[in-house]
Amino acid sequence: MGFRLPGITNAKKSLTRSLSASKALDIPKGYFAVYVGKSQKKRFVIPISYLNKPLFLDLLSQAEEEFGYDHPMGGITIPCSEHTFLDLTSRLSE
């Protein structure tokens, strides 16, 4: 038999929503944030349409192998150099 603490549960949900909403305010609809880099991460906001591109999906598979699904920075962490990422996204934009 357990105890129910609805006040604490609701407060936790509210705090979680407000924290995620504050991070999401600067991301336009149809885009998502990724963090790129090996040691120092840089944040990029990219179109969701990249999720349909095989080249980007390969990069996400590499990120999954290295980081799993635990992304401490709040966005997807991609383990490549900034130069490589910019080269790849420029090819996707063509």
From TrEMBL:
Pfam families: Auxin_inducible. GO terms for biological process: response to auxin. It comes from the Eukaryota. InterPro entries: SAUR_fam. Belongs to the ARG7 family. This is Small auxin up regulated protein. It comes from Rubus argutus (Southern blackberry).
